[in-house]
Design a protein that fits this description.
Layout (H helix, E strand, L loop, with lengths): L7 H24 L6 H14 L3 E2 L11 E5 L2 E3 L13 E10 L2 E10 L5 H20 L6 H14 L4 E2 L5 E3 L6 E5 L16 E4 L2 E3 L5 E3 L6 E3 L5 E3 L2 E5 L5 E3 L7 H6 L9
Helix pairs in contact: 1-2, 3-4
Length: 269
């Protein structure tokens, strides 16, 4: 399948979906407390979708039963919300997608609960910053794997972390998952050209130990084989018609984070 190229109006619809995602993830971050369950968080997201008259990207996707993925500790991605009680010191990753006017937004955050192990906090900080480094490297006129190299290089510069091999970022638009697949490792200068109209979800997934994972018996939840804790961050960004990037799932379009990396965002979206 060819990479889907969007016009400005389509990107503006994706921005609407992206803002639903941003506001919902902020709601979950602000609301989560020790003693809640991940089902409680899923219900918050359900109500948020209703508030914004948006649809879920996740529920029903290949049979997935919920509107968020909620992954705790050694569950790195794709955890199904359940009655597990959130504990002091847990590391929680939330992935969420929304559809507005037929267009998708997709983002993820990791949250430390209560008294967080400093090593877990560093894990999250490294993962989040590697995402921004990848977005900053994904410039108009570059190559797809410039993103991959930037993500991996930053992570490796910060210590020894496992970068998941089987999972990565993706194109996004009128479907949640589209071409191209975006590895979080590899040499730059390869793959498709990055051009205006592309929308990409950049999502590093790392652990404090091994990159090797296994899928639990629910056929969804991905855990690290050595039970080391994981982190997951994601943003959807686009290259606007003016050739500048815009982070569709960030409230400020990515301005604060990208400006410190020397990247100017588009004013068109």
């Amino acid at each position: 399948m060819a990479i889907q190229i969007k016009n400005l109006e389509q990107l503006k619809s994706m921005r609407k979906a992206g803002l639903v995602v941003a506001h919902t993830l902020n709601l979950i971050r602000d609301s989560v407390e020790i003693g809640m369950t991940t089902v409680d968080l899923d219900l918050l997201a359900v109500r948020s979708l209703e508030k914004y008259n948006a649809k879920s990207s996740f529920k029903g996707y290949h049979g997935f039963p919920s509107v968020i993925c909620a992954s705790v500790n050694d569950e790195v991605v794709h955890g199904i919300p359940n009655k597990r009680v959130i504990q002091d010191g847990d590391l929680l990753s939330i992935d969420f997608g929304a559809i507005v006017e037929g267009w998708h937004g997709d983002a993820a955050i990791s949250i430390g609960i209560g008294n967080v192990d400093p090593a877990d906090q560093k894990l999250m900080d490294v993962c989040e910053e590697s995402m921004w480094q990848g977005i900053a490297a994904g410039k108009n006129g570059g190559k797809l794997t410039d993103i991959s190299q930037a993500v991996e290089s930053y992570i490796n510069s910060q210590g020894k972390y496992g970068i998941l091999r089987e999972y990565g970022g993706h194109g996004i638009g009128s479907e949640m998952h589209q071409e191209p697949h975006i590895l979080n490792f590899g040499k730059g200068g390869n793959g498709p050209d990055l051009i205006p109209g592309m929308a990409l979800a950049i999502e590093p997934m790392i652990t404090r130990g091994t990159e090797k994972t296994k899928v639990l018996s629910d056929d969804w939840t991905v855990v690290s084989q050595d039970h080391s804790r994981g982190a997951h961050f994601e943003h959807t960004y686009a290259i606007a018609p003016d050739g500048k990037p815009f982070v569709l799932t960030a409230i400020d379009g990515g301005k604060a984070e990208l400006s410190r990396l020397g990247v100017e965002i588009s004013e068109l979206i």
